[in-house]
Amino acid sequence: MLAEMTDWLSQNEALIQQIGNYSLVILAITVVALPVVVKKLPEDYFVTDKREPARQNRKNPVLWALVSLFKNLVGILLILVGIAMLVLPGQGTVTILIGLAITNFPGKFKLERKIASQPAVGKTLNKIRELTGVPPLRMPLDSSDTAVT
Strand, coil or helix: what is 5? Predict the structure, then answer.
């Protein structure tokens, strides 16, 4: 078994190096983009009961549809990259959360809250906000709105 694995690794050395390179590029993009996105989230993003659909605030429906399509494609890409980062270098869970935040699908709000409510994720998000000089996000804990520090 070990010999087969060693043979496979030596036969696919270029593939493994390519995956490692992509992983490093994704990590660099995440390090740059993550603080920007987390800083822009409103303080009460995870504790509001209901969000109004953004399309109600748009005047040009064709432009809004194109922007929405692009935003959803980027969000799906971030979700996939975040899943990969669960086993590769990077902040996988936080990247998945950002991807979820910018996509539109039924049940999104509930899923975001569940992920963000995990202590490690909430602490990471609020540490980023602290470093960027904005107040911490309030996280849903049981039924009260309390900031995770």
Answer: helix
